Amino acid sequence: RQAASEYDWAWRIKDQHIDSLLIYGKLALKHSRAAHHKKIEAYSLADIGNYFKRKEVFDSAQWYLDQSLRIRREFGSSQDYISGYNLIAIMYVQWQKFDSAIYYFDLGLKLSEELEEINMRAKLLDGIGVCALRKGSYRQAFIYIEEALTWHKKLSDSTGMAKSLQNMGLIYQNTDQLSKAVKCYHQAKVIYQRLGSILGVVDIMINEGSIAAIQGNFQRAEQLFFEGLQMSQAYGLVENLSFIYNNLAFIYESTRQWEQALSFYQKSFELAKETEKRMDLIEAGINLGKVYWEMGEVRSAEKILNLVSKDWEVKDQPFLEAHLRQLQGKIYGSFKEYGKAYQTLLLSQQILDKLENELSSTRNLSDEILLITQEKQRLAHRVERQQSDIQIQEMRSQLWFSIILGGIVIIALAFIILLFKLHNQRLEVRRLAAEKSAFVEKEKRLEKDKEVSHILKRAELSNLEARLKTEQEVRQHIAKDLHDQLGSNLALLQIQLTGIKPQLAHIALNKQVQYESALQLLDNTCGSFREVARRMSQQGIDIEKWTCELQKFCETISLSGPLQIDFIYTDLSSSIPDDTIKEVYPIVKTLIDNILRHSEAKEATIQLFDQDNMLFLSVEDDGKGFDIHAQDNKQGIGLRNVYTRVEELNGEVNLESSPGRGTLINIQIPLNI
Fold first, then answer.
1. Is CB count within 10 Å lower at the N or C end of the chain?
2. pTM score, whole prediction
3. Summary mean pLDDT of the chain
4. In what order do the strands lie in the sheet with 564-569?
């Protein structure tokens, strides 16, 4: 209980008091290990891992989250197992290791589909969409996040809806659809405020600041970013700092305050190095190079851009690579290395062309290519200005050589692809022929097996009919003998004992009582004997008469004692097997006997009906009930007999009871009509 209490506190304060999350998480971990409570131990490890993720101490975060996932695998909860994958993937997203994040998101998504676990599906889809967004694949990001938002709405997950709306706003912002972005941010902000999520409110504040900066409202943007910076530092939200530094630097860069811009870009660069966030390093490095260039420090710009180009892979970030090549081309042009300048600027333009083609196919994003198109136009003007200083003849000769070489390579590849397709077609034809042959052979075997099975079934039915006929004949013969011999003797004994009754008037009163009791017992025995003989000798049971007898029995109980029985039945099918009908009557009698003996009930309800080839019997009372799991409430002989009779008919018994709430017994018996 103490471990659960500590974990509960850690969960409540996870967004408000980041340092307290570590304290309560460690306390919960300590108590859960002492109590051997694996589930809370896994949750506590995850909370500690999330603390280090927020602080961007990713090595420690990775270790704790891996340990949490290992324990989740042991106690076998599918949702917790999938949640473990999701937590590790989110950590990799913040670490900017997007390929690793997508790997874990995919593992969780596949497992959720196999186990039909829909509660985590939306979060996993949202995570994959964020990875695509951060890698610049806006069309893919839009598809995943839109599906995630739909699932969050179906599941009424407010936190998930707010996160998906925020991510959708980022897509619209990056594709220059600012009005749609503002609408999404506002909807997310309303949800975060209602949930009391400090982290979410700070995130939206930063997003609104970036929108204001893009719109040129630098004063409003600066105010929002400084408020976000203060709240992030106060609550230990380290993951926001790099983004805030970059945006503040962008504001000062846009207003040509180069020293302030350089200061904030350097802070972002140093923070990215400290936390090993590759994408932030690349972005901050490119921005530093751009500011150095604007300040006229060309060598400093060249140094930082070469560092970015050599030490960190940028090809998986096409937008950043385009800006990097653009700056490098300008630097080469300033050094009069016009060949390099042309090739670099041409590469930048090609990257932007590729981005433009991808953005043009993004669903429901009408203006998504505007940002890249404008950037392409600006780069085209710069390329034209540089071309006047480059040797035109050398460029043309190199271009023609590249075209010819490329054409030869394309023709060769096309020929190889054609041969490969022809080979695959031959293999496919052979495979289909083999599959067809195997299918025909399998059909023949199945047809033969079906014929043999039909013959065996007919033989089995014939044998069963013969056995049933023989059994009926034996039962009738036994009933006849019992009636003619033992029945006659019992009747004679009953007559003789009745005849001597007047002669016993002089004996003691207690002896007369014993005699009366014995005579009554003999009368009951004769009646029971006649009933058994009748049931053994009868050819078939009249369903209507049988239900009337059962109703009269219930009415007799109601008139003779404190228990009132309400017997409810529908017209039963006349084709119900006799064996089933014969067993239902003693089952009902046994259950009523149990109610009278043990339940102290005043009312009972019996329902009997058949539907969908099943016979349903329900017996419910308002008695004192009992704990069906308690050690001293083991089943008595009567209830065990009920279970035995129902099992012999291949049926099922469902018992529901608790102290003070009565007892309900539901019985289902297949009719096999």
1. N
2. 0.45
3. 77
4. 564-569, 603-611, 614-621, 663-670, 652-657
